[in-house]
Amino acid sequence: MKNPNVLVIGSGVAGMEASLLLAEAGREVHLIEKDSLIGGQTIKFEEVYPNMECATCMVAPRQQEILQKDTIRLHLLSEIKEVKGSAGDFTVTVKKRARYVNLVNCIGCGACYEPCPVSLPNLFEESLGEIKAVGVACPGALPNVPFIDPEHCLRFNGKKKDCQACQDACMFDAIDYTEQDQTLELKVGAILVATGFDMYDLNQLPQYGYGKIPNVLSAMEFERLFAANGPTQGEIKMKDGGTPNSIGIVHCAGRNECGYCSAVCCMYSTKFGYFLKHKFHDADVRSFHTDLCVPGKANQKFIQGAIDSGIRFIRFADISIEGKNGKSAIHCTRDDGGKETFEADMVILSPAMIPRKDTATLAEILGIHRDKLGFLASRAENLSPVETEKEGIFVTGCAEGPKDIPESIAQAQAAAGRILALLDESRSAVQNDQG
Amino acid sequence: MNEKIGVYVCECGPNIPDRIDIDKVLAEVSVIDGVKTAKKFGLLCSPDGKNFLEEDIKKEELTHAVIAACSPRDHEQTFMTVAVKAGLNPYLTQLVNIREQCAWIYSDKQEATRMAIKSIRAGISRVKHHLSLTKKELEMNPDVLVIGGGVAGVEACLSLAGTGRRIYLVEKAEELGGTVSKLGALIPHQGTAVDLFGEKIDRVRAQDDIEVITGHDVTSARGFLGNFEIEIEPQGDSSEIRNLQVGAVVIATGFGLLSSEHLDTNNGEKNPNIVSALEFESMLAQNAVVGKDGKPPRSVALIHCVGRAELGYCSKVCCLYMIKYAHHLKSMDASTKVTSFYTDLCLPDKSDQAYYDEAVKQGIRFLRSDAPSIQSAEGQVTVEYSTGGGKSASEKFDLVVLAPAMVPGEDTARLADMFNLPLDDTGFFKEIHMMLDPVATPIEGVFVTGCAMGPRNIPETITQSQAAAGKILGSLIPGRKLEPEVKVSEVRADFCTGCQTCLTVCFYAAISFDESRGISVVNEAICRGCGSCVGSCPSGAIRAKHFTYPQIYREVLEILS
To answer: What's domain A200-352's superfamily in CATH?
Structure first.
């Protein structure tokens, strides 16, 4: 008998889409998420191109649906450790870390944060803001239930074993220090991987001065500055609290090193430009790019609109950034051979999208291959873009390579479709033989 | 008045009583006409709270319930479910948000309390006008019509096969295969189209539950999700109409290519040394890459982006297939001079850049030029191109290959009209939500995949067809009933003047005009209750169930009183 249930790894846009579609079809879904909240990278974006829609608002109804669907079993703070079996009959071992906050009792009032004596950099906010040892990543995070970070909580790291400030503050009996890490064994018929991507480490590119020159930001840092639910409530502020009058946006950071184009950076970099021009009409915004990658029917118009709004696009052959009196001097050799220097108050670097650092481990656990670039390999070359070498295991979204939101969603729907057909009892033996 | 309304105020722990004097609220609202009981509870959304609510609704034999608590986004559904369990129609309840809209925004307790009372009074006034609404169930036909027998359509069929439904594949040409069957080798791994795709076509033909109907056009379509009535007829023969009943439709009609005459300045007299990409594909497939003189070309110009500037979009796939041509030319004769004229290289897939780098290594010349022009005289072709800084150069080539922009397929507008589908400003079909639902259209049950929706490559096209199949397999399950939206619009026949304004604003094509009665009619199976028609109707003839004028006026009047 084939097990019709499905394990989905990752709760970003791809994982959520697949889970909802499978649940709608009546399947039980185990949704595994390593973080304490769902939504992946997309919920970090204030607006997305080309229609400048609020991504948080766009995704929130789906997050709510995930939380409310009885047939989606959400396993937060969880990672897969072992996979045995084959298509139709997998046994997956999942390690689930304790949250120490009861998801049912907690109403998300936030009364526990204030009394917590520990503050630490909030990684969700690219460390631009702080979080307590008990807290949620950002306003609007779902589930709206905090998580106690045992590494930093004084009670758990042994620095003050009797601290119970959060428990004292909670009026709903939701803080539970006795919760234990768990090991789950899940039986499923198919596995869908939607673990997303990482960003190239800009510290590896000394020519851009990232981490050395003030106000040289990564794209993700800027996304959070620009977000209304971010650390500055959407105020674009420099390190000294001032607002920038000149901003340089540098595309393709790490493209040469990685050996591929990340497909989405030209567009989101231009989105930053639009946003800055909208916010600071007189600001001098310049976009330094190589080849503009704007595929498809809607993207080029977005770039044209940006040019019309006064953003200057400069095609570079070579570029470096030098700190100069607290500003950034962007030295650019254009592709026509000309040279120019732009002194910018703020610089945004758009780094390459790279495989998540745990991809190798994940591939090993699943028994699937990675490609030469380190992403999970699909059978796209054989015209099966969401299938892997191993029957019953599917890969979608940026785990397979850089792609935009619609393409990730289409892949999730495609993989869900393949799974529904694969595990359909009425499907004849003939089809099952046809990879 | 014989309503028996129950008002329930949730404390939400300290969230509400910290800022709102709940006892005062209860005292004031309990005396309102029609209110039978007014009570508070610690946390109504907790299991205890839900039990209390259910039991109290039953015990008090309520006709309506008003719950003053948090945002409807959090718990409207929760309390509607409780109402159902208590035997109360869920639409006879009203959730009043006194947490986010009162407790959390006023620092002054008196002010917050005053606002909470007003909000609850408004909820009570509104709920008195609520209508008991009931979900309907309609049968759904699980069968699917796929229009277009190219790579997108074939993939959709195979993804749906063997799932307990009949699939009709209607293709207007006599053969399946679409544009892909005209291609030689595919990129980047150079397997041939016939090898990779031919096998899929054979499978479609062999499958019992797929009926392949070639040489036919779809000529008429009516209906909605689960219940479409389709007419097809043989090409050019309207005497043999055949009817198909299906539950969903996948449109996979592909793309066209911009006519390239505008670059061929030879006034219609075609120079054989200037070919389009598709012509070059067939030269490759026949192993006959030769010029007019029958000799292999010594120099070839590959011109990307033909028509891009005029159309305002990038066709995505041309850069890569032009690089493919360059590789082919070099492998046939490494001494052939190959020059690629491009505007921006579009290499969005992870393996594309390596393919390009390899081409550069093989000595293929890539020149950026915004608008190269072609002069053709006596078989000679000259390409004139800008070299930056206002300067230009010209060069002669034995063969010129043009990569024309992908444009909407010839049937796009006709099918859009037939299925009431919107087109976007480029003339391709328009997604219902470009970001979140890339293969769905505003017409539920009608999907568009592949290049009919816009330029895309083969793997993406396959993904999209599998995605459409996934959406169909997830919703159109044999034996499952359709449950249309309950809060829909309805036209009151007495007031409708037949102006048909509502037809023009309905995004979902849910309204039709009944010629015999001279009025507009809403199809409740299609309407999603957005209310656009209500606002647009000059005679006030349309009402949205659950958002009727009395409901809204009564609510607003109390807030303003």
So the answer is: FAD/NAD(P)-binding domain (3.50.50.60)
Measured distance CA(B197)–CA(B387) in Å, rounded: 41
CB-based contacts of B242: which residues, under 8 Å, 6+ apart?
B216, B231, B232, B233
Cα separation, A366 vs A193, in Å, equals: 10
- B261-404 under CATH 3.50.50.60, yes or no: yes
Rg (CA), chain A: 23
* Residue A426 in tokens: 């009425």
Q: How many CB atoms lie within 10 A of CB A179?
A: 14
Closest Cβ–Cβ partner in B13, B189, B460 for A109? B13
Interchain proximity B460–A24, CB inside 8 Å: no
B388 touches chain A (CB under 8 A): yes
- Which SS3 state, helix, strand or coil, does residue B384 take? strand
Q: Name which of A72, A70, A24, A62 is nearest B475 in CA terms.
A: A24
Q: What share of chain A is helix, strand, coil (3-state, %, to 5)?
A: 30, 30, 45
Gap between the Cα atoms of A93 and A84, Å rounded: 9
Interface contact A384, partner B, CB < 8 A: yes
Q: Residues for chain B: how many in total?
A: 561
Distance from CA of B121 to the nearest CA of A (A): 26
**How far apart, in whole angstroms, are the C-alpha atoms of residue B496 and residue A255?**
62
Number of C-alpha atoms within 13 angstroms, CB side, residue B41?
21
Beta bridge partners of A376: A370
- φ and ψ at B12, to 5 degrees? 50, 55
Residues of A in contact with B424 (CB under 8 A): 297-298
CB contact A57 to B (< 8 Å):
no
Structure ipTM over 0.85, yes or no = yes
For the record, the structure tokens of B376 come out as 């053709």
Order the strands of the B274-276 sheet from edge to edge.
B274-276, B399-404, B299-306, B337-342, B365-368
Per-residue model confidence as pLDDT tens for chain B (561 residues): 589 999 999 999 888 999 999 999 999 999 999 999 999 999 999 889 999 999 999 999 999 999 999 999 889 999 999 999 999 999 999 999 999 999 999 999 999 999 999 999 999 999 999 999 999 999 999 999 999 999 999 999 999 999 999 999 999 999 999 988 888 777 655 567 777 788 899 999 999 999 999 999 999 999 999 999 999 999 888 888 999 999 999 999 999 999 866 455 445 567 788 899 998 998 988 888 888 788 999 999 999 999 999 999 999 999 999 999 999 999 999 999 999 999 999 999 999 999 999 999 999 999 998 878 888 777 678 999 987 777 889 999 999 999 999 999 999 999 999 999 999 999 999 999 999 999 999 999 999 999 999 999 999 999 999 999 999 999 999 989 998 899 999 999 999 999 999 999 998 889 999 999 999 999 998 899 999 999 999 999 999 999 999 999 999 999 998
In whole angstroms, give the CA distance from residue B293 to residue B381.
13
d(CA B408, CA B427): 6
Chains A–B, number of C-beta pairs less than 8 Å apart:
209
Tell me if B5-133 shares its fold with B261-404: no
How far apart are the C-alpha atoms of A31 and B513, rounded to whole Å? 46
Q: Do B164 and A405 touch (CB under 8 A)?
A: no
> What does each C-alpha distance from B475 to A27, A337, A408, B382, B479 come to in angstroms?
12, 57, 20, 57, 11
Architecture category of domain B5-133 in CATH: 3-Layer(aba) Sandwich (3.40)
Architecture per CATH, B489-545: 2-Layer Sandwich (3.30)
Q: Give the closest residue to A17 by CA, choosing from A268, A194, A189.
A: A194
Q: Domain coordinates of chain B in residue numbers?
A: 5-133, 144-256+408-475, 261-404, 489-545
